[in-house]
From TrEMBL:
GO terms for molecular function: metal ion binding; superoxide dismutase activity. It comes from Cyclostephanos tholiformis. Mn(2+) binds at residues 71, 119, 206, 210. Its EC number is 1.15.1.1. Belongs to the iron/manganese superoxide dismutase family. Its cofactor is Fe cation. The lineage of its organism: Eukaryota, Sar, Stramenopiles, Ochrophyta, Bacillariophyta. The keyword Oxidoreductase applies. InterPro entries: Fe/Mn_Superoxide_Dismutase (IPR050265), Mn/Fe_SOD (IPR001189), Mn/Fe_SOD_BS (IPR019833), Mn/Fe_SOD_C (IPR019832), Mn/Fe_SOD_N (IPR019831), Mn/Fe_SOD_N_sf (IPR036324), SOD_C_sf (IPR036314). This is Superoxide dismutase. Destroys radicals which are normally produced within the cells and which are toxic to biological systems. Pfam families: Sod_Fe_C (PF02777), Sod_Fe_N (PF00081).
Length: 244
């Protein structure tokens, strides 16, 4: 809650973003990044951990309740906590016109902001096994067919890229507004898809070890092959329709 007694990010942020961030000594890309971060902080002044749209056990046995609880309450929560710390520092740095500190915070903002955004998308594009089938008609089926032939080919291609991510990262199905086509990309670390590639995220697969190690140990291919059973295709299609 934001009260007069607690530190508020949003009000000074908006003021600062309009006054200080346009400083001619700040690179344009960082100026834009600061304004975006600060102006996107939700009402209440801080980013918050979203509730899952299902119970921790809902995706079992594909993803266990233990993995889901750890992933949500420890890993995602850490990104939220560290994003808020970085935003508070950014707010102070912007208000003070401290260009060096503003630039120095970009890595923490990208990593923790991306981690928060990616996981919020991820939870929503999962659902209980067998609860949502791939659509037999409609825009998602048509787009997948145009680009990959059929959904099985898409899964095969995306699975191979996810398995091949070196170290930690994500696989994404994204919409390219310029071509009107669906594409597959991988991103390292917590780099957010849209900010780094321009593609609108439709479906993300977290291939950090924390997403599968409890259930699949080091065998990432088994996790990637299994996760197709818990994809919420309705949500994926909703994102596609919104992106068009
Ligand atoms: Fe994760």
């Amino acid at each position: 809650m934001t009260t007069a007694a607690t530190k508020s990010i949003i009000a000074p942020a908006l003021r600062a973003a309009s006054v200080h961030v346009r400083s001619s000594v700040l690179p344009a890309s960082i100026s834009k990044s600061c304004a975006a971060h600060l102006s996107s902080v939700p009402p209440g002044g801080k980013a918050t951990l979203p509730d899952l749209p299902y119970d921790y056990a809902a995706l079992s046995p594909v993803i266990s309740a233990e993995t889901m609880e750890l992933h949500h309450t420890k890993h995602h929560n850490a990104y939220v906590t560290n994003l808020n710390i970085a935003l508070e520092k950014l707010d102070s740095a912007v208000s003070a016109g401290d260009v060096s500190s503003i630039i120095g915070l970009q890595g923490a903002l990208k990593f923790n902001g991306g981690g928060h955004l990616n996981h919020a998308l991820f939870w929503e594009n999962l659902c209980a096994k067998g609860s949502v089938a791939f659509p037999t008609s409609g825009p998602l089926k048509d787009c997948i067919a145009a680009r990959f032939g059929d959904v099985d080919n898409m899964k095969k291609e995306m699975s191979a890229l996810c398995v091949g991510v070196q170290g930690s990262g994500w696989g994404w199905l994204g919409y390219d507004a310029k071509t009107g086509r669906i594409e597959i990309r991988t991103c390292p670390n917590q780099d957010p898809l849209e900010a780094t590639t321009g593609l609108v995220p439709l479906l993300g697969i977290d291939v950090w070890e924390h997403a599968y190690y409890v259930d699949y140990r080091n065998v990432r291919p088994n996790y990637v092959n299994a996760i197709w059973d818990v994809i919420n295709w309705t949500k994926v299609e909703e994102r596609l329709v919104a992106a068009k």
